[in-house]
Amino acid sequence: MIWLTWRQHRKLAFYTLLGLAVLAAVLVPIGLSMRHTFADLGLAGCLRPSALSEAAAQTCDASLRRFSDRYDSLNLVAVLLITLPVLVGLFWGAPLVAREVEQGTHRFVWTQGVGRNRWALVKFGLIGGAVVLLAACYGLGVSWWVDPLTKAAHEGRLGVIVFDLQGIVPIGYTLFAVALGIFAGTIWKRMLPAMGITLAGFIGVRAAVEMLARPHYQPARTQTFPIEGPGIPEGDRGNWVLAVGIRNPDGTMVAENTRIQCPPGGKGPTGQACGAELGLKPGAYNWEMYQPADRFWLFQGIETGIFVALAVLLLYLAIRRVRRIA
Q1: DSSP annotation of 300
Q2: Distances from the Cα of 323 to the Cα of 11, 97, 107, 186, 195, angstroms
Q3: How confident is the model over 234-279, as pLDDT tens digits?
Q4: Other beta carbons within 10 Å of 123
């Protein structure tokens, strides 16, 4: 079975490794360039603003803007990288059962002394092991590549998109995509419908988990800071900000999704107190709800566990379906 599995998937394995090699050839020079720029601009010393003088802080702000202006376009590359796990699911998972059934070769394979269970366990196990290895390499490589971008960004590693690219979550996403493709192949038994269902299902589940579940893996924290003064607290850097607003002293939300920051004793154009035109009362403050930056690995573990559990469930259901295919 191992030899047969290798014979059936060796071309796909070769093209996958070739694709990873091309990806590495593109990303490694960009990653080295970002790291050199990060070091040349002295941004490593800018990550703890409390240790900086006012002049040094202004220099850091300018350097961070220069870095962002130069590499912000790479966000598009990051969006493209997010699609790689589902591509593995489409081309590794969906055809695994669907192609055998569509071409009728499953009857030959399952009548040669290899039971359906053994066929499924060996194939799913080998493909799953290869996928884990590929996803681990991909996650480590992208983590290295995206590191300067996340350090320079205010939202850090918990930011949307960059969280999905690095750490261990790519392993969970890829396993889930492959398992979904295999399961879809046992239901629709044709490659194209199975691939379409895999694509739609992957996008739907990923979006649902990211928008509905991830913000609630742990109870969010809140912090407040005055509308007059030095501004956002230093420790805010790297936090995943879920909501912001301005509240009056009694806690009433006056303006959502915005902040105000005025110099001490600052006045509006008409001489009113800072924020008075919005109906703010004396003592109004900025409010923020967030997930702390140090929860990155906890969130990575939770989300990886969710997708691995879904993958195991789908593979179990796929094995049950394989037993019933005529």
Answers
A1: H
A2: 28, 12, 12, 10, 21
A3: 667 788 999 999 998 888 888 888 888 887 776 666 667 777 777 7
A4: 22
How far apart are alpha carbons 26 and 23 in whole angstroms?
5
Q: Which among 291, 278, 261, 5 has a CA at the least distance from the CA of 126?
A: 5
- Token pair, residue 259, equals 């902040």
∠ Cα 165 46 294 (to 5°): 45
pTM over 0.90: no
Query: Which one-letter amino acid corresponds to residue 122?
Result: V
Low-confidence winner among 54-58, 82-86, 232-236 (lowest mean pLDDT): 232-236
Give per-residue pLDDT as tens, 204-243: 999 999 999 999 999 999 988 888 876 676 667 788 999 9
CB 298 within 8 A of CB 237: no
Q: Which two tokens stand for residue 201?
A: 């299902």
DSSP code per residue over 198-240: HHHHHHHHHHHIIIIIGGGSSPPEEEEEESBSS-S-GGGTT-E
Instruction: Work out the angle at residue 193's Cα, subtended by the Cα atoms of residues 191 and 198, and round it to the nearest 5 degrees.
Output: 90
Distance separating alpha carbons of residues 308 and 312, to the nearest angstrom: 6
Lowest mean pLDDT among 40-49, 118-127, 171-180: 40-49
Distance CA 196, CA 175 (A): 17
**Sheet harboring 221-226: ordered strands across?**
221-226, 285-291, 240-247, 253-256
At residue 80's C-alpha, the angle toward residues 197 and 6, to 5°, is 60
Calpha distance 253→255 (Å, rounded):
6
